[in-house]
């Protein structure tokens, strides 16, 4: 009890920073100033059906949950799916993927009063946290209100485990109050057990079950025609701050005639900033939002659109995974593999350690020790089509081999519902 009180006191001390953070982020992404009441447990409309609630923080979790959400909607048509988010981009992604078939709100900050309002307003039959969302007051209030709360698709890196280990007693209490935890890998499960989790299983990774939407694959074919059907195309997917500069410098040493590079920043508020970087470094630029055929002289296309990542993967020859060139943990490489594209990533994939190592073992990916290796790796793939084809085939096989997490998750949820 005392540890949760100290945790809550710390949250109250952070309250001024929370408002500063919202207003600071709103400078580039005004959506942060919308629905602020929801972040404190105030919601305008009550649901008309019993609620199955899933917390999908941002874009990655929202996309990863797609197969699970569709299965729940098919299996429980008399229930309403509620998705809670933390970021505006996560909320926008759920609008693109699910439209009006789900309710969507912001999850309140982890203050007891706000969490209580959220639970009393929606009265979910069951709640699901995805990946590494451990909110101690939320977990405790679900326990008090007899709402089963599961942590599914759970992952916990060694670095994160050490962080939670600094608050061992609070973490042990929080994990112990969850109804069940199902981890992505045995290693994740073991780290969670060491921190105090009681009921733990292994389900695999929901991201392997994602199916490229046919509409996105068709759009990918259209994009490829816009890019130039015969041009070699490199996609730098979900790049983070600092990585575009590294990439643009490395491209100066690439000797591949006609190479077109597509850069898709992870965060849309950085689109204009990245466009300036590209021009300042002397590259000829077009933007995806212009929706025009790419001129032969164009060297870089800025992927300044939302909800088209599968289409970008379908339209490229090689995918470079962002977040891995800087020590940021990497982004999801499974979508690129599902489309059958050879994958490159940098040395920092600790958020996707198991998936990236497995992709390497299956011959679906190549790791760059640093950005200086990019020119050689690109020439290896784009000048030797049989190598790229072999890797693409291995990538699809790698994804298919690891599918099945959705079925395991449904079985867990059905037993409780």
How would you describe what is shown here?
The chain is an alpha/beta fold and 417 residues long. It folds into two domains: 194 residues, 3-Deoxy-D-manno-octulosonic-acid transferase, N-terminal domain (Rossmann fold, 3-Layer(aba) Sandwich); 188 residues, Rossmann fold. 45% of the residues lie in helices and 15% in strands. The protein contains 19 helices and 14 strands. The chain has a seven-stranded parallel sheet with strand order 3-2-1-4-5-6-7, sandwiched between helices. The chain has a seven-stranded parallel sheet with strand order 10-11-9-8-12-13-14, with helices on both faces. Helix 15 links the parallel strand 12 and strand 13. The protein is globular and about 65 Å long. The two termini are 29 Å apart. 41% of the residues are buried.
Keywords:
14 strands, alpha/beta, 2 domains, Rossmann fold, globular, 19 helices, 417 residues, 7-stranded parallel beta sheet
Write a concise synopsis of the structure shown.
This protein has 417 residues and is an alpha/beta fold. 45% of the residues lie in helices and 15% in strands. The protein has helices at residues 2-13, 15-25, 59-64, 66-75, 88-98, 112-122, 136-144, 158-165, 168-176, 186-194, 214-227, 243-251, 271-280, 309-315, 334-338, 353-361, 374-382, 385-401, 405-416, and strands at residues 51-55, 80-85, 103-106, 126-130, 149-154, 180-183, 200-202, 233-239, 260-265, 285-287, 300-302, 318-321, 343-345, 365-367.
SSE layout and pairing:
Layout: H1 2-13, H2 15-25, E1 51-55, H3 59-64, H4 66-75, E2 80-85, H5 88-98, E3 103-106, H6 112-122, E4 126-130, H7 136-144, E5 149-154, H8 158-165, H9 168-176, E6 180-183, H10 186-194, E7 200-202, H11 214-227, E8 233-239, H12 243-251, E9 260-265, H13 271-280, E10 285-287, E11 300-302, H14 309-315, E12 318-321, H15 334-338, E13 343-345, H16 353-361, E14 365-367, H17 374-382, H18 385-401, H19 405-416
Parallel strand pairs: 1-2, 1-4, 2-3, 4-5, 5-6, 6-7, 8-9, 8-12, 9-11, 10-11, 12-13, 13-14
Helix pairs in contact: 4-19, 6-7, 7-9, 11-14
């Amino acid at each position: 009890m005392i540890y949760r009180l100290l945790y809550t006191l710390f949250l109250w001390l952070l309250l001024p920073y929370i408002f500063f953070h919202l207003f600071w982020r709103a400078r580039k992404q005004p959506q942060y100033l919308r629905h602020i009441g929801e972040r404190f447990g105030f919601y305008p409309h009550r649901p008309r059906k019993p609620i199955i609630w899933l917390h999908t923080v941002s874009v990655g979790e929202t996309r990863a949950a797609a197969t699970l959400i569709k299965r729940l909607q098919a299996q429980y048509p008399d229930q309403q799916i509620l998705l809670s988010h933390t970021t505006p981009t996560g909320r926008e992604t759920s609008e693109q993927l699910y439209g009006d078939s789900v309710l969507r709100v912001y999850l309140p900050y982890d203050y007891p009063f706000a969490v209580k309002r959220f639970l009393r307003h929606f009265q979910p039959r069951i709640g699901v946290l995805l990946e590494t969302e451990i909110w101690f007051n939320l977990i405790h209030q679900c326990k008090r209100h007899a709402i089963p709360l599961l942590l599914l698709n759970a992952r916990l890196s060694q670095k994160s485990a050490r962080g939670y280990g600094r608050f061992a007693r609070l973490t042990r209490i929080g994990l112990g109050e969850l109804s069940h935890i199902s981890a992505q890998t045995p290693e994740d499960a073991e780290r969670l057990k060491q921190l105090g989790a009681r009921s733990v299983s292994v389900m695999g990774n929901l991201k392997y079950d994602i199916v490229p939407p046919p509409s996105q694959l068709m759009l990918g074919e259209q994009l490829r025609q816009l890019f130039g059907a015969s041009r070699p195309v490199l996609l730098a997917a979900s790049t983070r701050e600092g990585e575009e500069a590294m990439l643009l410098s490395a491209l100066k040493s690439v000797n591949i005639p006609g190479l077109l590079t597509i850069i898709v920043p992870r965060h849309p508020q950085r689109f204009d900033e990245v466009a300036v970087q590209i021009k300042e470094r002397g590259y000829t630029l077009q933007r995806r939002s212009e929706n025009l055929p790419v001129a032969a002289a164009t060297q870089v296309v800025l992927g300044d659109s939302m909800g088209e990542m599968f289409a970008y993967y379908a339209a490229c020859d090689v995918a470079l995974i962002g977040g891995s060139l800087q020590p940021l943990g990497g982004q999801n490489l499974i979508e690129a593999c599902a489309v059958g594209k050879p994958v490159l990533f940098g040395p920092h994939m600790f958020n996707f350690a198991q998936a990236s190592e497995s992709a390497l073992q299956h011959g679906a990916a190549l790791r760059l020790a640093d950005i200086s290796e990019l020119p050689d790796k690109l020439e290896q793939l784009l000048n030797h089509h049989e190598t790229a084809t072999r890797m693409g085939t291995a990538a699809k096989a790698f994804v298919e081999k690891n599918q099945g997490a959705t079925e395991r998750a449904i079985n867990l949820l059905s037993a409780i519902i």
